[in-house]
Amino acid sequence: MAQRVNEIADRFVEEYAAADPVTATMFGIAGHDDRLTDYSPAGHEARAQIARKALRAMLDAQPVDNGERSAKAVFTERVGLEVQIHDAGLPLASLNVIESPVQNIRMVFDVMPAQTAADWAVIAQRLAGVPEALAGVRASLLVAAERGQISALRQVIKVAEQADAWAGPGTDTGFFTKFVAAADGVDGAPLAQLRQGAHAAERAYAALAEFLRAELMPDAPAKDAVGEQTYRLWSRYFTGADLDLREAYDWGWTEFARLEAEMVAVAARIAPGASLTEAAAVLDADPRYRLHGQAELRAWLQQVSDEALESLRDKHFEIPDELMELECAIAPPGGVVGAYYIGPTADFSRPGRMTWSVEPDKEEFATWREVSTVYHEGVPGHHLQIATAVHEADSLNTYQRLMSFTSGHGEGWALYAERLMQELGYLDDDGDLFGMLSQQLFRAARVVVDIGMHLEWEIPAGTDFHEGERWTPDLGLEFLLTRTLEDEATARDEIDRYLGWPGQAPAYKIGERLWLTAREEARARAGASFDVKDFHTRALRLGGMGLDTMREQLAAME
């Protein structure tokens, strides 16, 4: 007898969370916080077997209603791609500067409860597992290397530097030592256990850095581009759409030129005759937009976030009480520069949190550069989208609520949310508008740079940038530095990110494009009765999914 769709999905989450405790914690699935994931070849294969079993069962399942039909479409598309990626050997070789086991092992401690002695006891158990988890990472990297799958030299070098930063240059200077120093109310043997675990974790990260340099670096390929076959697989994974990459590349250039012209018009109002860079300098110097110190930045982020939640609620969006708490934080040093969001736990005991990762010694910040990012990471962006799905326990299975995030859908919505805030009148200030447009321009640049570098395509005529040459990492960096407003540290981090995480960066703008398309398709179907608030509510309550699946499900709802 075939199983029910939601039963299969719920069982998959239960089994997968047990096999991947780091992912479980990140997605707010309780019961696994005392362990770390087995990143060895055996661990990867065990998770692939769980996915294969669930996928076979789901393909045989017969949906009984529209909700189950949607759930089946989401699950088979997402988990099917997970299996393809495993079969291509990519998880074993996973090593990049932003989203690989090396970062996840450290980052999971950022989202663990750390208020009570009991919380710290759980942390101590997980902390003790860091050396074994990193040993599993090394084992998988070696197996992948034997198959000829090694991340590019750039990624190996940069990840080794990250591991060194978290290990610390000397005694009591590493991330984990500083982390456990905050264990208020813990003393005696429990405190000694925490300190011992912290030192062991730091030694393990130092050993990992040495391993990467000694054993992986000599054979790591100097070429960064992954080529079309691998790029297409990752592009489908990150967007949930079977893209025409050439069309997407050409559209990226058109969108970049459109946004650049829009920014020039706003710059003329800020400082007549000024270039984009000069207009940005005028805004940076304006006391109205300046913050001093990371504590002041965090407080300002929290204020803007809280104000957005209060003012958007009921008027423009349906926001349940459980979503009204959203924390803002500054990330520990060592990672790449940028902002990111982590969703709430299933019971909302851990609220959603958006975190800013800044250069350790940076103390001056300009609010005009950050306003739209608050909307992107918070409300109406990631927090509204992801936490709404978590809240939909009555209509979505556990997989849809907690594990079906897709970059094209999620990041596309968050970028759409930035532009939506202009439509709703929240960016009437030219400085804040200029900041939002600069982020839009930057995401359009990602489309052409990411696709261009990995496929080594030619830069077209009419772009006023090295026309006729083929993309290289150096040209990618030059483009970000000369044609966007990103500072050098951010631009360098971005190039490293694109080259190690192929296909993810374009998902923002491509996703926004498809969200806008879906809205206009819904408007055309509904005619005069179209209500944008209702469209947003229905779309967000569907949960995360691939972009092609989203358009199909929205059309089916009409």
Notes on the protein architecture:
- With 558 residues, this protein is mainly alpha-helical.
- The chain is built from 24 helices and five strands.
- The protein has two domains: 5-224, no CATH class; 234-507, no CATH class.
- The radius of gyration is 23 Å and the shape is globular.
Query: What structural class should be given to the helix and strand makeup?
Result: mainly alpha
Helix proportion: 55-70%
Number of helices: 24
**DSSP strand (E) fraction?**
under 5%
Q: Biggest sheet: strands side by side, in what order?
A: 2-4-3
Query: What string gives the helices and strands in order?
Result: HHHHHHHHHHHHHEHEEEEHHHHHHHHHH
Which radius of gyration do the C-alpha atoms yield? 23 Å
Distance between the termini: 32 Å
Describe this protein with a few key phrases:
5 strands; 24 helices; mainly alpha; 558 residues; three-stranded mixed β-sheet; 4% strand; two-stranded antiparallel sheet; 2 domains
Summarize the structure.
The protein has 558 residues and is mainly alpha-helical. It is built from 24 helices and 5 strands.
Q: What layout of secondary structure does this protein have?
A:
Blueprint: H1 5-19, H2 21-26, H3 41-60, H4 66-87, H5 101-107, H6 117-127, H7 130-146, H8 153-167, H9 175-180, H10 188-216, H11 228-239, H12 245-270, H13 276-285, E1 290-292, H14 294-312, E2 326-330, E3 338-342, E4 352-357, E5 364-366, H15 371-377, H16 382-391, H17 398-402, H18 407-423, H19 430-455, H20 473-483, H21 488-500, H22 507-526, H23 532-540, H24 547-557
Parallel strand pairs: 2-4
Antiparallel strand pairs: 1-5, 3-4
